[in-house]
C-alpha cells in the first residue's frame, strides 16, 4: 500500500477526503497533520479527531500544526462562523491529537523516509503553512516526499473566495510559493477541475444509505452547509474539492491534465493569484501536473463504492 500523510483543515470536503482515505486499504495514512483554514486551528483539530474516530481507524495519529499563515493576516473559510462540526453532524469522540507538533512530525517522518529511500506522498488539502514550515526549516525533507497532491489553485474558475484566488492559496500565498518552488513534484487539483464534479441528491442518498456512520455524517454535512448553487454551477449539486486528491491516488485514470509551471503572486492587490504556464513561456521547467478534467460519473462511483465499506459488516 502507498504511504501517505494528509495535511488538512477540516472542513466538509476535507472530511470526505479523510473518510475516503481511511476506508482504502491501498493507502496507509501515516498521520493527519492539521492546519488552520476553513475554521480556527482548535476547531480543525477537533473536527479531525471526530472524523478519524468515526472511521474506526483510531490508531491514526493526528498532529496539530500552524495556527495561522506565515505572513498575511488570517482569513477563514465561508462557514468560519460555525466553528467545529456540531455533535449532531459528526458525533463527539474522546480521541485527542498527539503532543508532537505537526511540523516536527513531518520533519521526523520525511527525513526517515529520505534515509530509507522510501518517499511518502502528501495530500495537501488546506493552506500549505505546515508544509512550508517543514520545507523552510529543513529543505532536506523534500527528498522524503514522493509527490504532493494538492487541492489548490484556480486558473480560470476563479472567484469562489475572492475574485482572483482559490481559498487554500489565498489563505497563505507565501506557504504555497514555498511548496511550489521546493522541487517536489506536484499534482494540482485546481478549482477548474473540482467544479466539474458536483455531488447531487442521488449520490448523497446512496452514501447516507450505504456508508455506515461516516456516510450519515457526510449526508448531514452536505445538507447542513449548502454547497449547491444553481446560478454558480449551472446545474444542481455541489463540489467536494478535497476528495479529488484521494480519488487520484486510488484511480488516477479518472483525471487528465497537462504539465506546467505553477506559480503564485504573494504580494499586491491580487496576492494568492495562481498561474499555470501551459505555453512554456517561462524559463523555469514544469513543477506540476495540473489536472484539467475529471470523469464525474467515475469519481462519484468510486466515492460510493469506497464509502460503502463503512456500511458493510
Ligand atoms: C478549498 O478551500 C476549502 O474551503 C476547502 O476545504 C478546499 O480545501 C477549496 O478551495
Ligand atoms: Ca480543505
TrEMBL record:
Quote the SUPFAM superfamilies the UniProt record gives. Nucleoside hydrolase
- Inosine/uridine-preferring nucleoside hydrolase domain location, by residue? 4-300
Keywords, alphabetical: Glycosidase, Hydrolase
In Pfam terms, one family for this protein is: IU_nuc_hydro
Q: Does the keyword Glycoprotein apply?
A: no
Q: Which GO terms describe its molecular function?
A: hydrolase activity
The record's InterPro entries line, in alphabetical order, gives:
I/U_nuclsd_hydro_CS (IPR015910), Inosine/uridine_hydrolase_dom (IPR001910), IUNH (IPR023186), Ribo_hydro-like (IPR036452)
Under the heading PANTHER family, the entry gives: INOSINE-URIDINE PREFERRING NUCLEOSIDE HYDROLASE (PTHR12304), URIDINE NUCLEOSIDASE (PTHR12304:SF4)
Protein name, per record: Nucleoside hydrolase
Origin species, per record, is: Rahnella inusitata
Amino acid at each position: 500500500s502507498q504511504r501517505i500523510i494528509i495535511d488538512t483543515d477540516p472542513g466538509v470536503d476535507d472530511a470526505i477526503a479523510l473518510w475516503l482515505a481511511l476506508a482504502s486499504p491501498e493507502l496507509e495514512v501515516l498521520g493527519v497533520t492539521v492546519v488552520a483554514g476553513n475554521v480556527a486551528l482548535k476547531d480543525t483539530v477537533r473536527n479531525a479527531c471526530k472524523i478519524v474516530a468515526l472511521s474506526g481507524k483510531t490508531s491514526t495519529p493526528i498532529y496539530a500544526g500552524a495556527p495561522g499563515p506565515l505572513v498575511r493576516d488570517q482569513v477563514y473559510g465561508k462557514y468560519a462562523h460555525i466553528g467545529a462540526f456540531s455533535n449532531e453532524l459528526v458525533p463527539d469522540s474522546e480521541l485527542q491529537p498527539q503532543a508532537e507538533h505537526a511540523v516536527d512530525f513531518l520533519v521526523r517522518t520525511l527525513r526517515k523516509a529520505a534515509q530509507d529511500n522510501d518517499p511518502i506522498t502528501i495530500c495537501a488539502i488546506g493552506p500549505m503553512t505546515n508544509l512550508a514550515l517543514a520545507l523552510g526549516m529543513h529543505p532536506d525533507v523534500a527528498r522524503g516526499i514522493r509527490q504532493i497532491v494538492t487541492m489548490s489553485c484556480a486558473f480560470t474558475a476563479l472567484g469562489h473566495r475572492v475574485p482572483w484566488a482559490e481559498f487554500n492559496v489565498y489563505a497563505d500565498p507565501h506557504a504555497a510559493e514555498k511548496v511550489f518552488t521546493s522541487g517536489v513534484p506536484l499534482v494540482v487539483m485546481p478549482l477548474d477541475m473540482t467544479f466539474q464534479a458536483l455531488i447531487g441528491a442521488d449520490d448523497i442518498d446512496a452514501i447516507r444509505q450505504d456508508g455506515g456512520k461516516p456516510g450519515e455524517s457526510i449526508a448531514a454535512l452536505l445538507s447542513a452547509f449548502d454547497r449547491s448553487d444553481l446560478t454558480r454551477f449551472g446545474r444542481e449539486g455541489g463540489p467536494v474539492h478535497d476528495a479529488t486528491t484521494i480519488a487520484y491516488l486510488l484511480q488516477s485514470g479518472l483525471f487528465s491534465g497537462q504539465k506546467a509551471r505553477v506559480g503564485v503572486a504573494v504580494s499586491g492587490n491580487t496576492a494568492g493569484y495562481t498561474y499555470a504556464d501551459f505555453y512554456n513561456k517561462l524559463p523555469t521547467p514544469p513543477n506540476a501536473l495540473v489536472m484539467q478534467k475529471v470523469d464525474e460519473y467515475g469519481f462519484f462511483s468510486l466515492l460510493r463504492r469506497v464509502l460503502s465499506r463503512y456500511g458493510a459488516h
